[in-house]
Every structure is written in structure tokens, then in C-alpha cells.
Amino acid sequence: MVGYLNLILRLVIWFLLTANLSVANIIIGVSIALLLPGSPKSLGRLQDWLRALFEVIVAIPQAYIEAFEIILRPHTQEEVTLERVKPGRTPGLIFLDIFLITFTPKTIVLKYQEDGWYEVHRVRRRKKKA
Questions:
Q1: Which regions span the lipid bilayer (predicted)?
Q2: Could you count the other beta carbons within 10 Å of the beta carbon of residue 118?
Q3: Three-state SS annotation for 8-31
Q4: Which of 22, 38, 68, 118 is most buried by a 10 A CB count?
């Protein structure tokens, strides 16, 4: 089941990159998705994939909310933090994590470190002094 999710992820990425749903492009996309090497030893659990897909659905309204916050109340503080990659993530799930972090307007992944960390840039509102 998870192998199909990896195939679907590859096809979605292909169609997003090409923005073309012609028959020829679909055949090329399926061929490339099947020919790309996979790592059979690192199959993710279906539960992890379902959780990641749910997080994608939740991120869409969150992105709109953050966009309006930035428009209405300026965010002038910036910070770069390190976030730990969840344990046991496959490359496809790591891609979805990076996509989720970068999808929202207040955060972007600057670098994925192979030792299991994301370098994340955030903008924040200036804290009011008490």
C-alpha cells in the first residue's frame, strides 16, 4: 500500500512540475515514476502517510490565516531554528514534512541536514515589552 503512495507522490510532483495532463505527459510521468529507484527497505507505515496527508489538509487553512496575519500585523522578527526530523521517516515523508513547513508563509526550510534536522527560518511579530 505504501509503495502505491510513493508512486502517487512521484506522479503528483511530476504533474506539478510539468503542469500538463496530456496523454503523452501522463505516459512519461508514469514511466519516470516507475523507473525511479526506490528503497524497499525503508517502507513507511500507512499510518505515517495518513497522518502526513491529514497535516497537508490542515496546512491549507493555516496558510491563509498566516498570510492574513502577516498582512494585517507586520512581522519584523526573524529567527533560524533547528527542528528534529520525526524518527523513522522515509524520503517521501521527509519531502512532505519539508513541503508542509515551507507551505505556510511564516516558515521556510533553509536546509535539510542528513543527520536528522531541518534548518527552519521563521518570521514572528515583535514581542511587546512589559
A1: 12-36
A2: 20
A3: HHHHHHHHHHHCCCCHHHHHHHHH
A4: 118
C-alpha cell at 31: 514511466
- The helix/strand/coil state of 82 is strand
Distance linking the first and last C-alpha atoms of the chain: 54
72-110, pLDDT tens digit by residue? 988 889 999 999 998 878 887 888 888 888 888 999 999
Range of the domain at 31: 1-37
Verify that 56 and 118 share a domain, yes or no.
yes
Dist. CA 123–CA 103, nearest whole Å: 14
CB 46, CB 8: distance < 8 Å: no
Which positions ≥6 away from 82 have C-beta within 8 Å?
Answer: 113, 117, 118, 119, 120
Residue 64, H or E segment:
helix 46-72
Q: What is the DSSP letter of 81?
A: E
Three cell numbers written together for 73: 500585523
Residue 66: φ, ψ to 5°:
-65, -35
